[in-house]
Design brief:
Blueprint: H1 2-13, H2 28-40, H3 57-71, H4 76-87, H5 102-127, H6 136-148
Helix pairs in contact: 2-3
Length: 152
C-alpha cells in the first residue's frame, strides 16, 4: 500500500511545477520592470486579471513578449507603448485620460451623480403629503354621513 501511495504522489508531483514560469534576467532592474509591466497589463481574454495572474494562452504569449522586449534593451515605456499601440488603451489597467478614455473615467462618476439626484428627487416628491381640495358641498355631505352613520 505504501508503494502505491508513493507512486501516486510521484505521478501527481509532475504536475505541481507545470504552472511555474521561470525567467532569467541580467539585473534586478529588468526583473523589477518585468514584474511591474505584467502586473499593469490587462489580460485581453480574462479582462479582469493582469497577465501576471492569468493562465490564458494570450497572457502567456504577452508575458513572453514583454520578457523578450526587455531582453532586447527596451524600456518599460517602450513596452507599454507597443502594447497600447497594438491592443489599445484597454490593455492598461490604468488607462491615461484622453478623449477616447474619458467615458471610462467620467462615466462612473456621472452615473453615480445621476442616481443620487434621482433618489433625492424621489424622496422629496414623496415627502410632501398630497393635499386634496374638497368643496364645501362635499364637505357638508361627508359631515352629514358621519353624523347619521352608515345605516345600510
Amino acid at each position: 500500500m505504501k508503494i502505491l501511495t508513493l507512486v501516486l504522489l510521484l505521478t501527481l508531483s509532475v504536475f505541481a511545477g507545470a504552472g511555474v514560469e521561470y525567467r532569467e534576467f541580467a539585473n534586478a532592474e529588468q526583473q523589477q520592470a518585468y514584474d511591474d509591466l505584467i502586473s499593469e497589463l490587462r489580460c485581453l481574454v480574462c479582462q479582469n486579471q493582469t497577465i501576471a495572474d492569468s493562465n490564458a494562452d494570450l497572457a502567456k504569449d504577452l508575458r513572453r513578449q514583454v520578457y523578450e522586449m526587455l531582453q532586447q534593451g527596451k524600456t518599460k515605456q517602450d513596452v507599454a507603448d507597443f502594447m497600447t499601440q497594438r491592443y489599445g488603451d484597454f490593455v492598461l489597467y490604468n488607462p491615461p485620460f484622453k478623449a477616447k478614455t474619458g467615458v471610462l473615467w467620467i462615466g462612473p462618476v456621472a452615473f453615480l451623480a445621476i442616481g443620487l439626484i434621482a433618489v433625492l428627487v424621489f424622496v422629496r416628491r414623496n415627502k410632501t403629503p398630497a393635499t386634496v381640495e374638497i368643496s364645501a358641498e362635499k364637505r357638508k355631505k361627508i359631515h352629514s354621513l358621519l353624523e347619521k352613520g352608515d345605516k345600510s
